[in-house]
Amino acid sequence: MTHVIYAFDRSSEALIFEVPISAEVIEQLRIIMKWNDAEDELYGYDLDFQQLAQLETLTGKSFYDPQYDYQLASYGN
What we know:
Blueprint: E1 2-9, E2 15-21, H1 26-33, E3 45-46, H2 49-59, E4 68-75
Antiparallel strand pairs: 1-2, 1-4, 3-4
Helix pairs in contact: 1-2
């Protein structure tokens, strides 16, 4: 399973950029997202500021910009 953070423009809803999340950090991602069941990893999620701050630390990338809406998605490998 691969997870990615998508950033969408708030006015046009266009996808602006994406941030991949390494499969090596899945345990930390589960904690950030408060996932309890394996199937929780399959869904898409809107991300709040607290989650985004933790995800920036997890990915080692600074990407937050308040002009975008963020979602976490997954897809099979």
